[in-house]
What we know:
The chain is an alpha/beta fold. The chain is about 30% helix and about 15% strand.
Amino acid sequence: MALPTFDDLNMKPLLAFFLSLTAATAADLSLLDAGKSDYQIVLPDAVPSPAIDASLQQTARLLQTAFLANKAEIAIVREKERDGSKPALMLGNTQFAQKNGLDVTKLRDWSYVQRVVGRDVILAGNDQASKAKVENARRPNWDRVGTAKAAVDFAREFLGVRFLYPDLPGYTPVSGAAKIDLMASPAIEFLPMKTITVPDSLNVTKTPLLRVNSAHPAGGSFYDLAHNRFPRVDEQFGGHTWERAVPAELFAEHPEYFALISGSRLKPEGNGQYCLSNSEVQERIYRDLVSHLERGFDSVDLGQPDGFRECQCEKCEALYGTGKDWSEKIWIFNREVAQRVEKSHPGGQITMMSYILTAQPPKTFNQFPANTCIMLTGTNEEDIAPWRGIEVPRGFTGYVYNWCPNLGTRYTPMRTPGYIEQQVQRLAANRIQSLYRDGPGQLFGLEGPVYYTMGRMFDDPANHHAKDLIPEFCEGAFPDKR
């Protein structure tokens, strides 16, 4: 009896399938093999500012160190100095990226592109010098270095780099990495890689879910960017702003600006309380907002005082016809201010604070102006649910209190990875675009894996899970280098 032939078994389709896999693998770019690499890292000749240039140089050094950790030395050069015979990792807004159709000016927030063109790899993001200058060192305004975000994500996915702990102190941008030895830093682990390959079909454009994710102190290190912790860029984010518009020192000359309580104008001691029906108070709050927009901010915040006490004057009680419903008075006032700003400063954005008295949405209207975002000071399901059905064109920002020392001791773990997974999924599902972490989380010895989980969950809330991210952290923190 004759054995069946190849054709008899109809194996040709299966063979074609395996050959296609082999061909696809062969087509992948080899960036490193057995300690050798043909690549160079290329920086643009022109950058928006010296500060951004310094950050791009350190971003290039991070990638260079990842190759050096695997015995390969590669050069960092300007585009005009590029060796045309070698492939390159092209960082930032290079002429090469522009010629291949990439316009970084159209990228918003911390968006970036990772794209293979021939044997070259483009890593470029929205690199934007800060327009708005601030005087308060505790609340600095930051440059945006989207290319650094593109690079840290690329380094994690393809180069075996793990960002485990903060590599720089607060208030320090990526450029501050010049002061540290990246190879020796315990904050960053470079896993051993015999080969480094990138799909030749790589063509990713990504806009992170969050445009701001900050705490005190704010940070902008490689660790921060890798974990979607983005500092504010040209944005005032959430707070009690009436006191900024009507400072306490005005009381001596204008006591009528301040709340009438039990028959007397309340002298501000710490938190000022205000007479909202006073036309000059309303004008000052409006002027405070537009003054920030005119100084270069894209977005400003608006919120009533902490420990709010209502003014008891007759005009305030009659204001907007809401009687003693001060929640509604404030919402109506906020909406009117936003409408006025929308007309006088088109494109200027306002983030209104939903806090205690305004924790619940307005009752007399269900649509905010197009320039409005709402900052929820609670982001649990019971805080978010009342806002469904309210039209907030720019979505929501929020506070999270995971590691607030007011809620428990800061010396023991406060959240589990599973809690964080559910929280991030809830935030993503409800269009939370910015976060302020009230309590930054500083217990890296015991909760480092939890912070890692939170950062990585924001990369892909639908498909990432704590059960996978904790081993990923441990692989980096305790690598087997035998």
